[in-house]
Amino acid sequence: MPGSISAQVLREEDEMRVEIDLELCQGHGICAEEAPDVFRVVERPGAYDRVEMIMESPAEEARVRIEAAVRYCPNRVLRIVD
Ligand code: SF4
User: In this structure, is residue 56 part of a structural domain?
Assistant: First the structure.
């Protein structure tokens, strides 16, 4: 998608990736509430806060929490790519 920005995490075992469209993220923090070990929100003065990945390689046991973050993100900017 032209102009989109994404963050990507690759897992060695099964190549699970979490994609984030950072241009559409508005820093609600729902993701960080659902998976606080995976996501955090960074303040950006003068702009919307923005999510950032905490973990380079989320453990499989975090998958359910990440799926909840994907489901409840109001802007629908998170995606797990298997
Ligand atoms: S819930 Fe969605 S829009 Fe809000 S900070 Fe997380 S990824 Fe960004």
Answer: yes
